[in-house]
Structure to design on (341 residues):
């Protein structure tokens, strides 16, 4: 793909992912035009005044809930990265209609506008919480995944293709537990919900690069899952707040003990590459020769944070928090090891 010929729009462009995506696009890929689409004029103003400006950059105020605004925003766009979402689990539980309006109906509006405006490729961001969801946030993201996969049938012969990227918790993003631990260590005590809890971890830079790679490789209909390391929350707390007391306060409603990125049922339609898994759609329009060089997964396989073959060390975590780019780059490549049941 020649990115210099592309007009790229990112929804939720003033969020953690959107800002880093914009930085990477302008730094490494130089698209013809990059459009930051978000509903918060103050955040757009802050980004611009902080120096995030470029002749190819456009700021577009709008909400994914507004289908007419999306139609206007996507005019002439060739690539869409859909990152806009309500993501805070407690907020989604307390405001379920709002979560549905943004995460599900907003996704529908993006799909309709992309097809109507002839966008070439659309990649929607998802989460490990979409796998066997137990909270509303995960349920809305599961619905969104289903919609974006099946949107390829809506597009039909038109050259508009949709895929998803599903990955775990992002180091240092808004809502991450890391800033919470950093604040709690000032008081000499950090809290975790369960000593056994594990989570997948990825950096913002890794997430952006994975999304870009997925867009370049997508046929339309895949859910891309990167191979990323896991870490126990107690180990993370002890690394970030050494010497502090660690108190277990019990799992909160909507929380899982471990996260899953590929379930056993999904694994039957999933193939493996050196650095990722590709969940293929079980629909008649999917072409079997897609990803023919990838390897099928063994029966009973599941990609879970507690049984992961790759674990984040304390040294690696400290390097990532400190912004050590070489350390982050090393984590991008996972050793080629066949998955085991």
């Amino acid at each position: 793909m020649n990115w210099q010929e592309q007009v790229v729009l990112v929804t939720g462009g003033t969020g953690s992912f959107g800002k880093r995506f914009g930085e990477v696009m302008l730094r490494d890929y130089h698209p013809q035009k990059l459009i930051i689409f978000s509903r918060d004029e103050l955040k757009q103003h802050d980004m611009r005044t902080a120096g995030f400006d470029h002749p190819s950059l456009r700021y577009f105020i709008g909400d994914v809930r507004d289908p007419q605004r999306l139609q206007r925003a996507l005019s002439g766009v060739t690539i869409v990265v859909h990152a806009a979402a309500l993501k805070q689990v407690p907020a989604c539980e307390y405001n379920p209609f709002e979560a549905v309006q943004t995460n599900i109906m907003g996704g529908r509006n993006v799909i309709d506008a992309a097809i109507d405006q002839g966008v070439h490729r659309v990649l929607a961001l998802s989460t490990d919480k979409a796998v066997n969801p137990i909270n509303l946030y995960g349920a809305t993201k599961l619905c969104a995944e289903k919609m974006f996969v099946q949107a390829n049938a809506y597009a039909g012969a038109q050259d508009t293709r949709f895929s998803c990227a599903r990955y775990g918790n992002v180091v240092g993003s808004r809502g991450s537990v890391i800033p919470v631990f950093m604040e709690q260590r000032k008081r000499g005590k950090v809290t975790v919900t369960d000593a056994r809890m594990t989570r997948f971890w990825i950096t913002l830079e890794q997430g952006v690069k994975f999304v870009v790679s997925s867009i370049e490789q997508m046929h339309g209909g895949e859910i891309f899952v990167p191979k990323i390391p896991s870490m126990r929350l107690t180990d993370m707390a002890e690394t970030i707040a050494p010497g502090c007391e660690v108190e277990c306060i019990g799992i909160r409603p909507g929380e899982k003990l471990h996260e899953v990125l590929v379930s056993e049922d999904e694994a039957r339609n999933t193939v493996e590459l050196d650095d990722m898994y590709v969940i293929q759609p079980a629909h008649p329009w999917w072409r079997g020769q897609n990803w023919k060089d990838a390897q099928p997964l063994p029966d009973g396989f599941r990609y879970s944070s507690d049984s992961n073959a790759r674990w984040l060390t304390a040294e690696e975590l400290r390097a990532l928090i400190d912004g050590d780019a070489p350390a982050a780059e090393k984590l991008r490549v996972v050793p080629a090891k066949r998955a085991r049941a």
Summary: The domain at 3-169+201-228+259-306 is CATH 3.40.50.720 (Rossmann fold). Confidence is low (pLDDT under 50) at residues 331-341. The first strand starts at residue 7 and ends at 11.
